Protein backbone atom coordinates (compact mmCIF):
# COMPACT_ATOMS: atom_id res chain seq x y z
CA UNK A 1 0.00 0.00 0.00
CA UNK A 2 1.48 3.28 -1.06
CA UNK A 3 1.66 6.08 1.50
CA UNK A 4 -0.89 8.86 1.10
CA UNK A 5 1.40 11.69 2.21
CA UNK A 6 4.83 11.99 0.62
CA UNK A 7 7.74 14.39 0.38
CA UNK A 8 10.00 14.01 -2.67
CA UNK A 9 8.40 10.64 -3.37
CA UNK A 10 8.95 9.19 0.12
CA UNK A 11 6.38 8.67 2.88
CA UNK A 12 6.68 11.29 5.59
CA UNK A 13 5.81 9.22 8.69
CA UNK A 14 8.81 6.84 8.42
CA UNK A 15 11.08 9.84 7.79
CA UNK A 16 9.89 11.68 10.90
CA UNK A 17 9.66 8.77 13.31
CA UNK A 18 13.44 8.37 13.58
CA UNK A 19 13.70 11.64 15.50
CA UNK A 20 11.42 10.82 18.45
CA UNK A 21 12.70 7.24 18.38
CA UNK A 22 16.28 8.36 18.87
CA UNK A 23 15.58 11.31 21.14
CA UNK A 24 13.32 9.49 23.61
CA UNK A 25 15.42 6.33 23.79
CA UNK A 26 18.61 8.36 24.29
CA UNK A 27 16.94 10.52 26.94
CA UNK A 28 16.11 7.39 28.95
CA UNK A 29 19.68 6.14 28.45
CA UNK A 30 21.01 9.48 29.75
CA UNK A 31 18.76 9.13 32.81
CA UNK A 32 20.31 5.74 33.56
CA UNK A 33 23.81 7.10 32.91
CA UNK A 34 23.10 9.97 35.33
CA UNK A 35 22.25 7.45 38.04
CA UNK A 36 25.43 5.54 37.23
CA UNK A 37 28.05 8.27 36.80
CA UNK A 38 26.28 11.33 38.31
CA UNK A 39 27.28 13.70 35.52
CA UNK A 40 25.29 16.85 36.33
CA UNK A 41 24.77 17.76 32.64
CA UNK A 42 22.88 14.58 31.76
CA UNK A 43 19.50 15.42 33.36
CA UNK A 44 19.30 18.74 31.51
CA UNK A 45 20.21 17.08 28.22
CA UNK A 46 17.59 14.39 28.85
CA UNK A 47 14.98 17.04 29.70
CA UNK A 48 15.41 18.84 26.39
CA UNK A 49 15.65 15.60 24.41
CA UNK A 50 12.31 14.50 25.85
CA UNK A 51 10.73 17.83 24.89
CA UNK A 52 11.99 17.53 21.32
CA UNK A 53 11.03 13.84 21.16
CA UNK A 54 7.46 14.54 22.30
CA UNK A 55 7.02 17.28 19.70
CA UNK A 56 8.55 15.04 17.01
CA UNK A 57 6.35 12.12 18.06
CA UNK A 58 3.20 14.21 17.78
CA UNK A 59 4.26 15.47 14.37
CA UNK A 60 4.99 11.94 13.11
CA UNK A 61 1.64 10.80 14.51
CA UNK A 62 -0.23 13.22 12.26
CA UNK A 63 1.26 11.67 9.13
CA UNK A 64 1.00 8.12 10.49
CA UNK A 65 -2.69 8.68 11.19
CA UNK A 66 -3.23 9.97 7.65
CA UNK A 67 -1.62 6.82 6.25
CA UNK A 68 -3.62 4.62 8.65
CA UNK A 69 -6.87 6.14 7.32
CA UNK A 70 -5.89 4.86 3.86
CA UNK A 71 -5.54 1.23 4.96
CA UNK A 72 -8.30 -1.15 3.93
CA UNK A 73 -10.85 -1.79 6.66
CA UNK A 74 -10.86 -5.25 8.22
CA UNK A 75 -7.22 -5.83 7.21
CA UNK A 76 -4.40 -7.07 9.41
CA UNK A 77 -2.50 -3.89 8.52
CA UNK A 78 -5.32 -1.65 9.76
CA UNK A 79 -5.54 -3.60 13.03
CA UNK A 80 -1.77 -3.54 13.60
CA UNK A 81 -1.67 0.10 12.56
CA UNK A 82 -4.22 0.94 15.23
CA UNK A 83 -2.14 -0.81 17.91
CA UNK A 84 0.98 0.91 16.59
CA UNK A 85 -0.63 4.35 16.70
CA UNK A 86 -2.31 3.92 20.09
CA UNK A 87 0.88 2.51 21.60
CA UNK A 88 2.98 5.35 20.23
CA UNK A 89 0.49 7.90 21.56
CA UNK A 90 0.76 6.29 25.01
CA UNK A 91 4.56 6.49 24.72
CA UNK A 92 4.43 10.20 23.87
CA UNK A 93 2.06 10.87 26.79
CA UNK A 94 4.28 8.83 29.13
CA UNK A 95 7.34 10.86 28.18
CA UNK A 96 5.37 14.12 28.33
CA UNK A 97 4.37 13.36 31.93
CA UNK A 98 7.98 12.46 32.73
CA UNK A 99 9.02 15.80 31.24
CA UNK A 100 6.40 17.71 33.26
CA UNK A 101 7.55 16.05 36.48
CA UNK A 102 11.13 17.24 35.85
CA UNK A 103 10.18 20.80 34.93
CA UNK A 104 10.16 22.24 38.46
CA UNK A 105 13.15 20.23 39.73
CA UNK A 106 16.48 22.08 39.94
CA UNK A 107 18.71 20.95 37.07
CA UNK A 108 15.83 18.76 35.77
CA UNK A 109 16.95 15.77 37.85
CA UNK A 110 14.39 12.99 37.37
CA UNK A 111 12.68 11.68 40.48
CA UNK A 112 11.65 8.04 40.76
CA UNK A 113 8.34 8.47 38.93
CA UNK A 114 9.84 10.46 36.04
CA UNK A 115 12.56 7.85 35.63
CA UNK A 116 10.10 4.95 35.75
CA UNK A 117 7.93 6.65 33.12
CA UNK A 118 10.92 7.10 30.80
CA UNK A 119 11.95 3.48 31.14
CA UNK A 120 8.35 2.28 30.72
CA UNK A 121 8.07 4.42 27.59
CA UNK A 122 11.15 2.80 26.08
CA UNK A 123 9.87 -0.66 27.04
CA UNK A 124 6.56 -0.07 25.28
CA UNK A 125 8.41 1.50 22.35
CA UNK A 126 10.32 -1.72 21.71
CA UNK A 127 6.96 -3.34 21.00
CA UNK A 128 5.32 -0.53 18.99
CA UNK A 129 8.41 0.10 16.90
CA UNK A 130 8.50 -3.63 16.08
CA UNK A 131 4.88 -3.31 14.94
CA UNK A 132 5.94 -0.43 12.67
CA UNK A 133 8.59 -2.68 11.15
CA UNK A 134 5.98 -5.40 10.67
CA UNK A 135 3.71 -2.93 8.89
CA UNK A 136 6.40 -1.75 6.48
CA UNK A 137 8.62 -4.80 5.98
CA UNK A 138 6.07 -7.60 6.22
CA UNK A 139 2.80 -6.01 5.10
CA UNK A 140 4.22 -3.46 2.66
CA UNK A 141 2.48 -0.45 4.19
CA UNK A 142 3.93 2.84 2.88
CA UNK A 143 5.90 0.95 0.23
CA UNK A 144 5.74 2.21 -3.33
CA UNK A 145 4.03 -0.37 -5.58
CA UNK A 146 6.90 -0.16 -8.06
CA UNK A 147 9.57 -0.76 -5.43
CA UNK A 148 12.32 -3.18 -6.39
CA UNK A 149 16.11 -3.32 -6.25
CA UNK A 150 16.41 -1.58 -9.63
CA UNK A 151 13.60 0.96 -9.28
CA UNK A 152 14.38 4.45 -10.58
CA UNK A 153 14.88 7.38 -8.21
CA UNK A 154 11.75 8.74 -6.59
CA UNK A 155 12.73 12.12 -8.02
CA UNK A 156 12.35 10.95 -11.62
CA UNK A 157 9.16 11.14 -13.61
CA UNK A 158 6.86 8.36 -12.57
CA UNK A 159 5.19 6.03 -15.02
CA UNK A 160 1.91 4.33 -14.18
CA UNK A 161 2.41 0.97 -12.51
CA UNK A 162 0.97 -1.95 -14.44
CA UNK A 163 1.06 -5.67 -13.80
CA UNK A 164 3.48 -6.15 -16.71
CA UNK A 165 5.85 -3.42 -15.47
CA UNK A 166 5.93 -4.97 -12.00
CA UNK A 167 6.60 -8.40 -13.51
CA UNK A 168 9.43 -6.98 -15.67
CA UNK A 169 10.94 -5.13 -12.70
CA UNK A 170 10.91 -8.23 -10.52
CA UNK A 171 12.90 -10.19 -13.12
CA UNK A 172 15.77 -7.70 -13.26
**Net shape:** elongated
> Main sheet: which strands, in order across?
1-2
Order of helices and strands: EEHHHHH
User: Percent of residues in helical segments?
Assistant: 55-70%
Number of separate strands: 2
Main β-sheet, in a few words?
2 strands, antiparallel
Q: DSSP helix count?
A: 5
Distance between the termini: 22 Å
Quote the average pLDDT.
Answer: 86
Low-confidence segments: none
Proportion of strand residues? under 5%
Radius of gyration: 19 Å
How many domains comprise the coordinates? 2
Kindly name the structural category. Answer: mainly alpha
Structure write-up:
The chain is mostly helical. It folds into 2 domains: 6-141; 148-172, no CATH class. The protein contains 5 helices and 2 strands. It has helices at residues 12-37, 42-69, 76-103, 112-138, 163-170, and strands at residues 6-7, 10-11. The protein has a two-stranded antiparallel sheet with strand order 1-2. Strand 1 (6-7) and strand 2 form a beta hairpin. The longest helix has 28 residues, at 42-69. The chain is elongated and about 55 Å long. The relative contact order is 0.15. The mean pLDDT is 86.
Amino acid sequence: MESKVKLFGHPIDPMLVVFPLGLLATAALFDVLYLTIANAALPAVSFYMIAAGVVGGLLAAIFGFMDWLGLPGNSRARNLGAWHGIGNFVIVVTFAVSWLLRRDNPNFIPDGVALILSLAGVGLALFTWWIGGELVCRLGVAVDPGANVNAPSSLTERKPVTASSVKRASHR
